[in-house]
Amino acid sequence: MRKYTKTMMEREFSTDDVCLDYLFNSRWPKGPECKKCRAVTKHFRIKNRKSYSCQFCGSMISPTANTIFHKSELPLRSWFYAIFLMASTRTGVASMQLERELGVNHRTALRMFRQIRSLMANDSGSLMGDVEVDETYIGGRRKGKRGRGAAGKTIVAGAVERGGDAVMTVVPNVKGNTLLPFIQANVDPSATVYTDELRSYDRLAKSGYAHETVNHGAGQYVDGMAHVNTMESLWSNAKRGIDGVNHHVSPRYLQTYLDAYTFRYSHRDDETPMFQTLLHRASRPLS
């Protein structure tokens, strides 16, 4: 991935006008269609407004409408800088850092934090080739049983294509009726799936998947091509990030944090910097 520095960002997006023009061109690369004229027409910027008007009828459009910038009074440069910060590290940044860096109150920083994180929702296709599948438990430290069956923790299922993308999803349990649909939704039937010995995975072969396992309970962690070390590494990175950067994550918002970690992982080798990928997503209307 090409290194994108703060200096490059500040030079490329030096003013709010430049930021607005970027959103306009990104949202309508071939030009916007005027609903009144019913044709693609040339639009001109309206001075002192975040809007453009049709050259023929004067009807207005705004590139920030229905995006994360909608009705925000913050300068677009502040938004762009916040996106840059959240795309620039492996573990991300906390909302408190946005508050300090941008000079905004905590409520505003938290809103920006959540809006930008929503741009990182998983959009990868089916995982193919050699795919590792595993599950883990995420939550605060509690006395009692650890690992499977631990009380008060949130269960997460994960899959990663070796050398490719990843996906992590909050699930209610680790039963076969839960994990098998997760795999079918995210892993191509042609893939070879590697798991540990959890019996919930036993139905994979009957579902048409090539399936190999390692027995962690017996101290076996690698058996030829069979292992889930890539997925374990991804778990470790996500947990370190949550503990070290965010300190605590509510189960209500955990999925969006997981999306952010898988986004960074899946785009780690892209030629396009993550910052620019997120900016492009930010120009799209929210669904």
Based on the model shown, name its key terms:
287 residues, alpha+beta, Nucleotidyltransferase, domain 5, three-stranded antiparallel sheet, 9 helices, 36% helix, elongated
Detailed description of the structure:
The protein is α+β, with helices and mostly antiparallel strands. The protein has a domain at 130-266: Nucleotidyltransferase, domain 5 (2-Layer Sandwich). Helix content is 36%, strand content 15%. It has nine helices and ten strands. Strand 3 (43-45) and strand 4 (52-54) form a beta hairpin. Helix 3 crosses helix 9 (274-282).
**CATH architecture classification of the domain at 130-266:** 2-Layer Sandwich
Q: Which class best fits the helix and strand makeup?
A: alpha+beta
Strand order of the largest sheet: 8-7-6-9-10
**Count the strands?**
10
Give the overall shape: elongated
Main β sheet profile = 5 strands, mixed
Average pLDDT, all residues: 91
Series of secondary-structure elements, N-terminal to C-terminal: HHEEEEEHHHEEEHEEHHH
List the helices and strands and how they pair.
Layout: H1 6-12, H2 16-27, E1 33-34, E2 39-40, E3 43-45, E4 52-54, E5 60-61, H3 76-87, H4 95-102, H5 106-118, E6 130-138, E7 154-161, E8 166-171, H6 176-186, E9 192-195, E10 210-213, H7 229-246, H8 254-266, H9 274-282
Helix pairs in contact: 3-5, 3-9, 4-5, 7-8
Summed up:
By secondary structure, this protein is an alpha+beta fold.
